[in-house]
Amino acid sequence: MSDRRDDNDPRELTGAYALDAVDTGEREAFERAAGRSENLQAEADELRETALLLALSADPVAPSERLKIDLMAKIASTPQEMPTRSESRPAESAPVDPQPQVAQSAEALPLAASSTPAELKASRRWFSGPIGLVAGVAAAAALFIGGGFVGGALSPDAPVVIDASATELAEITAASDSQRTTVELDGGTTATLVWSEELGRSAVVTDGLEPLPDDKVYEAWYIDSEGAVPAGTFTASGAGTAWHVLEGTMAAGATVGVTVEPAGGSETPTTDPVIVVESA
To answer: Has UniProt tagged this entry with the keyword Disulfide bond (predicted)?
Structure first.
């Protein structure tokens, strides 16, 4: 009997498949094998569930604020795709970050007026397949929870939410219908809206957003033809990056706006929007 590993045996890919750490060819080979073996599929499902439980039970650690900011901005604004497998593997080259998509400035858009759709829209899945979706949430939750991410912003003084907000953002990003739209404002500030119509949830991630004085907050709004509905407040960190999972349910085609309001927020907007992003 030989105890050597057979690299061509799909069963050797069970753990990697459960964590979405396989390429396209390996994924297809494993799924063909799993389609013929209930035990193999059950083993992958158990490993996936274990990864999720381990992620959610991890003890919090305290990475640097810069790491948290960079990670959050990258996840929300960078579309992720599975690589295409090639029979001949070319020499590896340095990765190039995809450029964010740009739409018109929010400053020209009134809060309650109807506007044209954003010029460009990113509509991509973070991971492919149910296994990858849950594994993606597990991985994101492990990073967010382990990093002590805050619920409404990346401010060092904000309260820490161990799993609720981090898991919500991970689920939105990993949803099968997850979409992104990025707008660029004057001064180089960018705002990325990430949303899932299936979940009815959305989040805004900004880069270059100015910190506000203590008596002011940013407030998010769901905007339609009938007006604006408050969706929670947040602050920007000293590095100018902030993220916020909007409260309430997002309707299909909704517009998301952000205004500057007194601390504690407002029932209706009291200022013109500094950010407007359309999902339609």
So the answer is: no
